[in-house]
């Protein structure tokens, strides 16, 4: 990959609201103490990479149709998860000095269309190796967790966001790789681990031990690849720059399903190089990017 990566070209930006107006979305959504504690957390950033449509199809028509379908699907989804169409609002008070933070659910979810002159192989190249009547089975609980008789309005004794929000910056040298483990590979690792132990060891425990990480983010029960967006199964899943730090490992159900697992690993360059040079580890890896 070039040392001067191409720039992203922004084409359009819009705000998507629920398919029809909801009475609940017209009222402020006040934050609970747990919500307020998460203000310093960064948004989750997940990127799906898909193959382009066949060359015989019109690229312009395909993109227009895809964008229309994505916007429509998002508007229907926001009927059930209307707070995701909102934005945080801060009201400052001088007497007494305080800040009230809540969600304005009427703003709309930002939808950005942009392009980038890169191929999937560019993105996945190794770095350190050498109106619809739609229902959902479990509707979200939108009622906030306040005890009866307790005010839903919590004012913070601050007048500037820097007084209560921490700005975490990930080290610039962090390297990220995704290692894919097939169900067959994990089964072999599990059999070997159980043969050498008096205790029963699960597949996930075996994989955690292989990368020397007993704690992981996310879960292999989370099937991220079922989110097809009308383009088939994604080629790969990538994560954004948020919440990246040394020795962070996230696990997801693998693309092939059936017990396969993907591990998204963040390490310092020298540690990543050492991991990729570990023959036992790389022998168990089915694919990495």
Automatic annotation (TrEMBL):
Keyword annotations of the record: Transferase
Source organism, top-level taxon: Eukaryota
GO MF term (any one): transferase activity
Stored PANTHER family: FAMILY REGULATORY PROTEIN, PUTATIVE (AFU_ORTHOLOGUE AFUA_3G14730)-RELATED, HXXXD-TYPE ACYL-TRANSFERASE FAMILY PROTEIN
Name under which the protein is recorded: BAHD acyltransferase
Organism annotation: Quercus lobata (Valley oak)
């Amino acid at each position: 990959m070039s040392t001067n990566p191409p720039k992203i070209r922004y084409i359009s930006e819009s705000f998507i609201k629920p398919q029809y107006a909801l009475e609940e979305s017209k009222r402020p959504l006040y934050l609970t103490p747990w919500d307020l504690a998460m203000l310093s957390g960064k948004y989750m950033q997940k990127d799906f990479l898909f193959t382009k449509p066949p060359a015989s199809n019109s690229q312009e028509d395909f993109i227009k149709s895809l964008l229309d379908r994505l916007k429509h699907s998002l508007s229907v989804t926001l009927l059930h998860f209307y707070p995701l169409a909102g934005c945080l609002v801060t009201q400052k008070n001088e007497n007494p000095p305080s800040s009230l933070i809540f969600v304005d659910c009427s703003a709309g979810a930002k939808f950005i269309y942009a392009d980038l002159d890169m191929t999937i192989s560019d993105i996945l190249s190794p770095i350190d190796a050498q109106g619809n009547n739609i229902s959902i089975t479990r509707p979200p609980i939108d009622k906030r967790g306040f005890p009866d008789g307790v005010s839903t309005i919590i004012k913070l004794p601050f007048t500037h966001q820097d007084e209560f929000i921490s700005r975490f910056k990930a080290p610039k040298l962090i390297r990220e790789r995704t290692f894919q483990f097939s169900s067959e590979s994990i089964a072999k690792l599990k059999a070997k681990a159980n043969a050498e132990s008096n205790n029963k060891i699960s597949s996930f425990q075996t994989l955690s031990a292989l990368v020397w990480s007993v704690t992981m983010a996310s879960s292999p029960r989370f099937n991220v690849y079922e989110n097809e967006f009308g383009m088939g199964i994604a080629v790969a899943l990538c994560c954004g720059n948020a919440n990246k730090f040394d020795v962070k490992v996230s696990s997801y159900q693998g693309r092939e399903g059936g017990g396969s697992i993907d591990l998204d690993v963040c390490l310092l360059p020298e540690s990543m190089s050492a991991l990729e040079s570990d023959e036992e580890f790389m022998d168990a890896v089915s694919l990495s990017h």
